[in-house]
Design brief:
The protein has 9 helices and 10 strands. It is elongated, with a radius of gyration of 32 Å. It is an alpha+beta fold. The strands form 2 sheets. Strands 5-6-2-1-8-9 form a 6-stranded mixed β-sheet. The chain has a 4-stranded antiparallel β-sheet with strand order 4-3-7-10, with no helix packed on it. The model is unreliable at 15-32 (pLDDT under 50). It folds into 2 domains: 34-141, Sandwich (Immunoglobulin-like), CATH 2.60.40; 151-330, no CATH class.
């Protein structure tokens, strides 16, 4: 009798194990492939991690806990806390890549089955890791352009970019500065014009980059070309600085600042060092302008200045008018 009871108990336990295994396998088979994770590292030194899964299932498994309690994002082995939110497709995590970060690791405990983790440095090919539920990923190496630069590197980089935007790439800005110089070589009038131009383009460069001012390049670029022509034509009509000249130069400086901002947008600014990069770029622009004035002072020396002011102004005016028409047509 006792043996029969033991056999019956053994059979029940065996049946229970079979049923439990079948249930677990069916759960795993149902869930496998339904969770997909992607980690994308951007050139602006930020990252975006997305967990594609049923948001209702995720919400139930959270049990009211914050998402960050179940998602582990780390750089160089140091955990960080991303901004996390539930979306219609699952979870989205965003944040800034820490300075000197070289590797990334991922851990997620809201799934019970295996899933694919896709990792990608922006503009590079993606790699994939297959993770079993509650396991940590292998370290993923970040590409060099993804890693945030140091402040000193940002200053050096954007000073250079600002300078080279004037010399040698910014022919339109070079001609404008030369046009200012051609009116007079006396320090006070020249300083008044250059200061007005500097203050103005610094204002609109900052306001445009921070999103407070916006004007289409279709308007800005032809207007910059027209400002070059205007300054050169005025040089042909007067030989001394008039009171309105400084105000006009200031207004033109506002336009040129928007032009600088357009270039800076294409280059991109690091979020962590946004202000540092902005000020450095502007400093590079100023250095470029001073270099142009220094060269102009040598080229248009007083002893032969009278011979070249008129032909140089005519050439600058013609170039400015040509660019105006060309840019209007292109717009």
């Amino acid at each position: 009798m006792q043996n029969a009871k033991c056999k019956t108990a053994t059979r029940l336990i065996f049946a229970f194990c079979i049923l439990h295994s079948a249930f677990a396998l069916s759960m795993s088979a149902h869930e496998i492939g339904t969770t997909q994770v992607r980690a994308l590292f951007h050139k602006d030194h930020t990252y975006t991690n997305t967990v594609a899964s049923d948001p209702q299932t995720i919400a139930k498994r959270l049990h009211g806990d914050p998402i960050a309690k179940h998602v582990f994002v780390s750089f160089n082995g140091n955990r960080v806390t991303p901004h996390a939110r539930l979306t219609a497709n699952g979870i989205e995590l965003t944040g800034e890549i820490p300075p000197r970060a070289e590797s990334f690791m991922w851990h997620y405990d809201l799934t019970f089955s295996a899933y694919v983790l896709t990792l990608e440095n922006e503009s590079h090919g993606a790699t994939r890791q297959w993770l079993d539920g509650n396991t940590e990923s292998a370290p993923f190496l970040l590409s060099r352009e993804i890693i945030p630069p140091t402040r000193l590197a940002v200053i050096r980089q954007y000073l250079t970019l600002g300078f080279t935007h004037i010399v040698p790439r910014g022919l339109d800005h070079i001609l404008f500065v030369v046009g200012l110089f051609l009116l007079t070589t006396r320090i006070k009038p020249l300083l008044a014009q250059v200061t007005a131009f500097t203050v103005a383009h610094s204002i609109t460069l900052g306001l445009t980059m921070y999103g407070f001012v916006s004007l289409s390049p279709r308007i800005v670029e032809p207007a910059i070309a027209l400002s070059i022509a205007y300054i050169a034509i005025e040089n042909l009509l007067t030989t001394e600085l008039k009171p309105w000249r400084v105000a006009i130069v200031f207004a033109f400086g506002l336009l040129h600042g928007m032009g600088f901002a357009g270039v800076l947008r294409e280059l991109g600014l690091p979020r962590r060092e946004f202000l540092t990069a902005l000020v450095s770029f502007n400093g590079g622009v100023e250095a470029g302008q001073l270099f142009v004035i220094a060269v102009a002072a040598v080229v248009f020396a007083p002893k032969w200045r009278a011979r070249v002011v008129v032909p140089a102004s005519l050439a600058i005016a013609a170039t400015g008018l040509f660019w105006t028409v060309q840019r209007l047509i292109a717009a």
